[in-house]
Design a protein that fits this description.
With 245 residues, the protein is α/β, with parallel strands linked by helices. It has one domain: Rossmann fold. The chain is built from twelve helices and eight strands. It has helices spanning 16-29, 46-49, 59-63, 90-95, 101-105, 125-131, 145-160, 182-189, 201-209, 213-216, 221-235, 238-244; strands spanning 3-8, 34-38, 74-75, 81-84, 114-118, 136-141, 164-173, 193-198. An eight-stranded mixed sheet has the order 3-4-2-5-1-6-7-8, sandwiched between helices. The chain is globular, with a radius of gyration of 17 Å. The protein binds adenosine-5'-triphosphate (ATP) and magnesium ion.
Length: 245
């Protein structure tokens, strides 16, 4: 049985899409069958980050009732990794009903080892529907106090709603000398720190090339961190642990 994992944060731009793409590809390389879903309905960009820009049918068509989810699943050039892209034009955004996200996404669980849901930031309706399509959640934050507290709030809400919070990714660490150190961040977040991803120009360069950093520069510090995250996520069975515990 697969796992449905939402990738979420309080503030925008923390690295959710980057984490979704790199984690998916890293787990694919480990032999797991992975589906990455772009559930950021108003600002879809996962397919660009993963190098697919010619999708005909998208998640938006499914949420508008114009297509079946199977028509919106694409094989990628990455081993074992499949993608559900979103549309970028506003007409499609207006027609897509975000409330249908959970009922569209949850049935995909048995067919993949991992389904990752790239969510919009915050706690608005679009974000809530995307996040609630998962059963587990990985939070992504940057090492700034307002960013950490906002992400913590999202974690609290999702935990109350019944999701298993696996922990958080401390992304873009080392950009400023005022960065909150990992131990302090973990204390504030009150959930496990999964990995520290350093600020790495290779990550941004990779994004611009449309090839995530684990493929673009696998020996870079950024890529190494995402490989470590993949190991960690495959090791901890969040929901199972919760059910047994
Ligand atoms: N570790 C890193 N080092 C350097 N740049 C990074 C790192 N992580 C992410 N970035 C860059 O930060 C920008 C924002 O990342 P990303 O799009 O993944 O964030 P997001 O949380 O999905 O944003 P949004 O909330 O808008 O969806 C991108 O240009 C990305 O390349
Ligand atoms: Mg994003």
């Amino acid at each position: 049985m697969g796992r449905l994992i939402s990738i979420a944060s309080g503030k925008g731009g923390t690295g959710k899409t980057t984490t979704t793409a790199n984690l998916s590809i890293a787990l694919g390389k480990m032999g797991y069958k992975v589906l990455a879903i772009d559930a950021d309905l108003t600002m879809a960009n996962l397919s660009l980050v993963m190098g697919i820009d010619d999708a005909d049918v998208t998640l938006h068509d499914v949420l508008a009732g114009d297509a079946h989810i199977r028509e919106a699943i694409y094989a990628t050039s990455y081993e074992n990794v499949f993608l559900v892209p979103g549309a970028v034009d506003w007409e499609h955004v207006l027609k897509a009903d975000p409330r249908r996200l959970p009922s569209v996404i949850k049935p995909l669980k048995p067919e993949y080892d991992f389904v990752f849901i790239d969510c919009p930031a915050g706690l608005q309706m679009d974000a809530m529907n995307a996040m609630m399509s998962g059963e587990e959640v990985i939070l992504v934050t940057n090492p700034e106090i307002s960013c950490i507290t906002d992400t913590m709030k999202v974690g609290i809400v999702l935990k109350k709603a019944g999701l298993a919070v696996l922990g958080f990714v401390l992304n873009r660490y080392g950009r400023s000398e005022n960065d909150i150190p990992p131990e302090a961040a973990e204390e504030v977040m009150e959930v496990p720190l999964l990995v520290v991803v350093p600020e790495d120009p290779k990550v941004r360069e990779a994004t611009l090339e449309g090839v995530p950093v684990v493929e673009y520069a696998p020996d870079s510090e950024g890529a190494k961190a995402f490989f470590k995250l993949a190991e960690e996520i495959s090791r901890i069975a969040g929901l199972k642990a919760k059910v047994i515990g």
